[in-house]
């Protein structure tokens, strides 16, 4: 489930907002050239957790996806996916991507979420671990789920068909 984001005009306004809440997590605290500031509120078993996100991209894709298990929140931003453990109110995993984050795509039949980025995809399980990752050498132009696979179309490369369960490259018959 995607959560809505609030955009803040400055780092100070975001930090003031977070200071009003007891259960908070700040992502991107050490970014050298911050350009965008966001927050979202995630439900947890012990009430809400307020998440602050600092991004180095102006107008870049920032997305908060509550995993179906309800225990973890995935935040895609810049060239990273950060997973927050909502019960422990702390960062569980901070996974570097090979390219700029684009979006999350749910893969409910395999109990995972796919983090699509500029060069490929990372599959994340509902218990917040990386199942597999696959990247191309060129920028993705399109992607789509086809049965039990994801088709990745990059600029100057052949289309790649990737098995959603294992991340293995499948023979393409296009």
Q: Mean pLDDT score, rounded? A: 92
Which structural class best describes the helix and strand composition? mainly beta
Distance between the termini: 33 Å
According to DSSP, the number of beta strands is 17
Quick one: CATH class?
Mainly Beta
CATH architecture: Beta Barrel
Strand order of the largest sheet: 1-6-7-8-9
CATH topology: Lipocalin
Taking all Cα atoms into account, the compactness measure Rg is: 17 Å
SS summary, helix count: 1
What is the domain tally?
1
Order of helices and strands: EEHEEEEEEEEEEEEEEE
List strands and helices in order, with pairings:
Elements: E1 2-3, E2 6-8, H1 11-19, E3 24-27, E4 36-44, E5 47-55, E6 63-66, E7 72-77, E8 80-85, E9 90-96, E10 101-107, E11 112-117, E12 120-125, E13 130-135, E14 140-146, E15 149-154, E16 160-163, E17 169-170
Parallel strand pairs: 3-5
Antiparallel strand pairs: 1-6, 2-4, 4-5, 6-7, 7-8, 8-9, 10-11, 11-12, 12-13, 14-15, 15-16, 16-17
């Amino acid at each position: 489930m995607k959560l809505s984001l609030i955009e803040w005009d400055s780092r100070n306004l975001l930090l003031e907002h977070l200071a009003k809440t007891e259960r908070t997590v700040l992502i991107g605290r050490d970014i050298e050239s911050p350009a965008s500031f966001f927050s979202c509120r995630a439900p947890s078993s012990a009430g809400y957790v307020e998440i602050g996100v600092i991004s180095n991209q102006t107008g870049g894709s920032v997305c908060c996806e509550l995993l179906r298990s309800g225990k973890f929140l995935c935040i895609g931003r810049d060239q990273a996916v950060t997973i927050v453990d909502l019960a422990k109110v702390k960062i569980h995993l901070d996974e570097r991507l090979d390219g700029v984050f684009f979006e999350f795509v749910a893969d409910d039949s395999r109990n995972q979420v796919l983090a699509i980025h500029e060069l490929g995809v990372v599959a994340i399980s509902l218990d917040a671990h990386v199942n597999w990752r696959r990247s191309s050498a060129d920028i993705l132009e399109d992607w789509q789920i086809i049965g039990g696979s994801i088709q990745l179309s990059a600029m100057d490369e052949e289309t790649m068909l990737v098995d959603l369960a294992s991340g293995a490259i499948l023979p393409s018959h296009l």
